[in-house]
Structure formats: C-alpha cells, structure tokens
Amino acid sequence: TDTSHIRNFSIVAHIDHGKSTISDRILELTNTVEERDMEAQLLDTMDIERERGITIKSNAVRVMYTADDGETYQFNLIDTPGHVDFTYEVSRSLAACEGAVLVVDATQGVEAQTVSNANLAMNADLDIVPAINKIDLPSAHPDEVKLEIEDELAIPADDAVCVSGKTGEGIHDLLEAIVFLISPPQGDPSAPLKALILDSYFDEYRGVVATVRVFDGGIKKGDQLQMMQAGHAFLVDGVGVKRPAETLVDELSVGEVGFVVTGLKDPEAVRVGDTLTGALRPTAEPLPGYREAKPMVYTGIFPIDNKDYENLRDALEKLHVNDPSLTWSPETSVALGFGFRVGFLGLLHMEVVKERLEREFDLDLIATSPSVDYHVYKTDGTMLEVRSPQDLPDVTRIDHIEEPYLKAKVIVPPEYTGAVMQLSIEHRGIMTDMIHLSQKSVEMRFDIPLAELILDFFDQLKSRTKGYASLDYEFADYRPSELVKLDILLSGDEVDALSFIVHKDKAYGLARGLCDKLKEIIPRQLFEVPIQGAIGNKIIARSTVKARRKDVLAKCYGGDISRKRKLLEKQKEGKKRMKAIGSVEVPQEAFLAILKVE
Ligand code: GTP
Q1: What's the confidence (pLDDT) of residue 132?
Q2: What predicted TM-score, i.e. pTM, was given to this entire model?
Q3: Which CDD domains does the UniProt record give (predicted)?
Q4: Ligand 1 pocket: which residues have CB below 6 Å?
Q5: How many angstroms is it from 19 CA to the middle of ligand 1?
C-alpha cells in the first residue's frame, strides 16, 4: 500500500466565501459526477442545508484526479461548515487531514472566521493552500486580499491560487496546488488498525455507519473490530467511500478516509472522536480524539402532544450519533408538560436541531426561550448551575449570580467602528482592544455576556454595518451580574415556560417589549386575555389581547364553499401548532417571542 498518491484535505472558510461552490467545481472537473447529475451544493445533503444555502455538517467525499504529471491521485475532500456555531465540526474534520484549502472571498477579504479557521489549521500543523475565490466579480481585489492573507494570517500568499467557483476559472490550478503543497498521509499498513471516527449517523437497517480516517493498518468487510473508548466490539458489515453516492469498496487502507458499516444498533456504541482498532490485535495507544464541544445555550424542547415524549427521547438519542455536541436532561413544565432541557452550541445550532427533530423524526415541538448556564451562589455557600429560569431559587436564598462572558472579535471597515462600539455598549460589552489590521479593516475586541449575544446581537451588527462586520467569539469566564427573573402572566396565571433571566437594567424594557409582542402573537380568544410582566410580585408591564367578535366564516356569507373549506383547514393547521395554556390557546412562536423583541 502506497500512500504517496493520497491527499486528505478540508475546505475551510468564513461563511459564504464559497466552499461548497468550489467543492461542486472540483467534483465536476474530476468527473466525479456526470454533468447531468450536477446540482448546486452537491455535498450539502440535508434539506435544511439546501434551503438555507449553508453547510451544517462536514461531508467527506473521494475524487480521483489525473494531474498534469500524468499520475492519478486520490483526493479525500471534506467540505466543512463556516458558521461559528459549528467550529467544532471544522476541527473534527481537520484532525483527519494533512492539509486545508483556505478559501477567502476576493470581494470581502479576511473575515473573523477566516482568522479562526486559519488558526485551527495552523495549530493542527496542516499544509495550507490559500484560494482566493469569486475573482469573476467586478469588485474582486485579489492582490489586496493576498496582502491581507500575509499580514493578518501570517500565511505566505505566493502559493495562493485565484479561482472562481462560479465560472470554474483557476480550479485546475487549485487541484495542482493540492497535489504539490499538501503532504501525503503517513502510516504503517502492517501495524494494528488505528482509525479515527470523525462522524457517524444512525441507519434503521444498517445500524451506526461511521466515517473514519485510517492512520495505521486497514479495514475490510468481516474484520473483528472494537471501539477503544466505548468498548463495543463488532464485525464489519462493509466498508465504502462517498463518491458522493455511497459506494462499497474492498478495503479502506492506510491513509484513506471512508465509512464503516458497523451493524451496531445501540446509538451509544459509537462515539465521534473514539479510536477504532482490531478486536484481536488492538493498537497500544488510542488517538487523542476530540475536545468535547461545550454547549453554550439551553432551551426547553417539549412535544406539542405529550404522547410523543418517548419518541422525542428516542429521536434525541439517534440524532446524537450524528451530532455529538447535543446534550439533554429531562425537564418538566407546568405549562408544557414533560420535555427536555437541551444544550446547543448556539442559536443556529438550536434552530437546526429543532428542525431536524421535526423533519427527520416527524415530531411537533415547542422550544422555549434560550438561556445560558448561570452560576447561582446561594446564601448557604453552595453553587447551583441554573440553565432554566424555573430552577432559579427564591431571591432570599441567592447571594449572587454569575453569568458566562465571551471574548468577542469583530472585523469591520474603519467607518463602522463607532456603530459597533455603540452596539457593544447597548449589550453590556466592554471594549478591550482595537487593532488596525489594514487600511480597510479594524479588529475590535470586547468582553460581552453570552446572554446578550444570543438574542439579536448578530442581526443588529449586520444591519448597523451594512453587512460588512464579521463576528467570532469564544468562551472567556464567569462574572457576577445583577440578574432577575422576569415572569409572564396570562390571564393572571404565571406561565413557567415564558419566564426568563435578564439583567435588572433591561427588565423593564424587555417586559414591555415582550407584552407587546405577545399581544401580536396570541390570537384573539372568546374572552379577553390580559398579559402581564412581573418581577416577583411586582407587575412591571401589561397588555391585553381583546376578545374575538366575529366567526372566521362570517365573512364568506355562505358563498364559495371551497374557500370556506380552505379557511377551516387553515384554522385546523393553526390549531395543531397551538398549545392550550390554561384556557388560552398559545401558538408556539410565543415561547420564542423574546428573540423577536427589538
Ligand atoms: P457555508 O457553507 O454556508 O459556510 O457557505 P460556503 O462557504 O460553502 O459558500 P457557498 O459555496 O454556499 O457560496 C456562497 C455564495 O457565494 C453563493 O451564493 C454562491 O453562489 C456564491 N459564490 C461562490 N463562489 C462564487 C464565485 O466564484 N463567484 C461568484 N460570483 N459567486 C460565488
């Protein structure tokens, strides 16, 4: 087994700089897919990815490239997500590679996640090929971007390849650069098997299917293998590669990336980051694996129909195979019944998981407002981790509360620094540094509570800087804050699922905003519904949903029957998405109304 013709690399970039488009062109140019089968974002296989035009999951595919030297090379290409919520997904992919193609948009230049992805690749000691994309656009300035790559990332830009994912220009040069600049994998084909599990998913028929990178040895159908950490042993049902359709092969040999059909039906048996080895002749040392992804945001997830509770648990377990960053524990709400407190890497991750649970497992769910993990120091000297407003102890028993802070980094053109500073102040941020990267970009650093960032910070940042600012952040530490619990009462009854924890200076504004928003969201009922915001026993805001007067059908005066039916169906559809809280019908958006308060 000769690895000199293998190249394993990830494509990394700031969001929307064109990774998926470049991957598409590579698949095309190497004839991996026939032209008639070509569709945009071929490697984004989930519906949500296609609809939103973003990559959420990494995807490993094998392409064969015949280079100008006449030799044929095996490329194992991993397309990765660009959004900050999914950085862990990028680092997982990098651990399976010798190289990275760092894509930078020629019209945008280096942005916040360009910096963090470049750092991840450098720390993993990978060979980096910079690719300056979108050179077909009139506003492209590739020469300036080359300078930015050298100055801001300390990556030599002589090797940078200028490409257009749209027209295909330069893609051939990029493939040649990959052959010459990225090292082939090394490893011992006759040593005991040592393979890294970088991804996996659950298949009803085949059990867990794991994507692996072989570091030593090889894998064939019928081999007896074991997971070093989890301990489960199994017989290999088959091995294969994605091209991009799953194709079975005889062997995954040293240096290669592919998938293993384990036949294991227990979703817990296969852990991403675990080392796969021979059951009879195991390797001595496991691979270092991955640092566990720490959840940043928590929400309650409840089935609309309480009968679905067990199905929801089952769905979470199966989804966990494919998304190991997911954590959950049971939660009970007076208003919503039995559900789970689920931890996410960020708000986009939360939306994606909720959507996947609903689509892939056919569940109707309600998510409650996101919360961070608060450290509540009690008067008895103990500390309580509070991830749900309901778990906050009585004020008399609280000494003080600490909340998580982030180190945030914004890269922005100089004319917008004032706007960013203002936004940061409004969100309790503290500026710590401001670095002029070049004439066109300034890096602003600040410490900011995570709870502020998860609400509307990012949208505000984009709109106040006309889309020019980019954001990156990481966890910093816990700091004391004056926080209170804001409750919402419907018809005088407190609704636990609508409570949240907020800084005391913001409580009044938020309570007012929330009461107004809920008044818009909650439909008129047969009776008047007062909405109140309260801290403890003190009412601080109120609004009212007026009683409904007319019947929906009244305006059709018995005329058009199909229109009538449509209206009734629409009403029924609406009903399904409602939850009865006491005698009030509340639509699911109400529980996330906090995200919509300006
Ligand atoms: P994420 O996966 O969400 O991080 O995005 P991505 O980096 O994969 O970007 P994607 O390939 O989805 O491209 C983002 C947008 O840029 C799409 O609208 C593409 O059509 C467009 N685009 C990509 N490459 C080029 C290019 O070379 N020229 C032009 N004009 N547009 C491009």
Answers
A1: 97
A2: 0.77
A3: EF4_II, EF4_III, LepA, lepA_C
A4: 13, 15-21, 53-55, 81-82, 133-134, 136-137, 164-166
A5: 6
